[in-house]
Sequence to fold (228 residues):
Amino acid sequence: MNATEKTVREDASAGAAMQNEPGGAQHGWEQQDWEALAWEKQGGLLPAIIQDADSRRVLMLGYMSREALATTLRTRQVTFFSRSKGRLWTKGESSGHTLDLVAIEADCDRDSLLVLARPQGPTCHLGTASCFSAAPGDVLGELQALIHRRHAERPAGSYTTKLFDDGIKRIAQKVGEEGLETALAAVAEDDASLLGETADLLYHLIVLLRARGLDLDDAKRVLQERMR
Fold:
């Protein structure tokens, strides 16, 4: 085993250890044998598709060497091998718009990577969220991520902060009110009103789930089970 291979294995183990710290969760992807990837297929580099972990929007495409993957696993900051610079390049090292690692998965041929990350600012150097201008994203996922941040940070003056501070009963009351308003809009108002009330209901539902320690992904899993 050469030094690079040893580093990849050690950093994969270190990443798993980080997830085993109190409050962390062990993920199956952390146990992968990254050295078993098809590194030599493309000259020691693997294409890495970066996807927003919350909105599922494709953000960019980069290339990872063994060293880049090892650095990503160790630091939890997505790092590439820059072919133009001829060196490792951590996304955001100059702009501050880093990509915080959430998960990595190899494809079926083990010659490309899907990297889930949370961007800290725009990903594209043009100042846009994605390097693919028309890349679709899940607005509910983005809204949920914002609500989770509000729950954790509790910024003053935020309506979401006030809801969390008021407690679960008040949030549940708001969901009931918005549900009734949505139903009334469906039978007595125009489409714009119905859509507006629906948006309000969805927002308050996400807040309610967060207050209970749940999120939309938990509800989606129930739906998936029901569709089997």
Notes: Residues 125 and 131 are 8 Å apart (CA to CA). The chain has two domains: 3-119, 139-226.
